[in-house]
Amino acid sequence: MAIIASNFKTNHTRKSTNEFIQTVNNYLVENKISSEVYVFPTSTSLDTFQTVSNFFVGAQNAYATKNGSFTGEIGTEQLDEFNIKTILIGHSERRHILGETQEEIAKKFNFYKELGYKIIYCIGEPLEVKQQGLEKTLEYIYEQFIGIDTNYENLILAYEPVWAIGTGVTATNEDIINVHGAIKEKISKPLLYGGSVKVNNVREICSLNGVDGALIGTASWIKEDFIQILKNTKDI
After folding, report:
1. Residue 148 contacts residue 183 (beta carbons within 8 Å)
2. What CATH number is attached to the domain comprising 115?
């Protein structure tokens, strides 16, 4: 069954996040949907949500610490308050906009791995790498596994070509199949696709060989749209 995840990024408030999660949870209960669903709200919107066992609320980011003097960050002391045990690591916006290095990302990964967190780990390439062909693309992607335990039992991977995130440009089916196929040959973990996934293309993308679901940004922020995405993929 397809794994569907929504990354809120810097969107929604505490109130609208609560409404979103309640609405989605009700849909999952009423329709007996058993596929895994993830939502990653902003850190100010984290709370103790009542959800079914296959619906996970996670943190978009946290520092590799329990607590301490790390201005602007949160650690496990804050996550534990809401029983959050799921985290997104390595998203391209943190790599390319906020300058997180592979070394920092690996440190974070290993910290949360030791605590048994479910980790959705993001990988992907910028346009100038994609234009050099599949071999260079895979070379670039495999460097993002340096310091990462790809055998970790609670690991889900998400391939997000940077040039397709929020641009409206979706990778071709051939692009997705080629990259997913190559990664799956090396790493036998669930592999999601992300990058301009929309209500009207999510079913086709999730049906491709090597695609185990989707990590969705913009198209998932309206609760009715997210529920439609779940409807479109519930039998895959």
Report:
1. no
2. 3.20.20.70
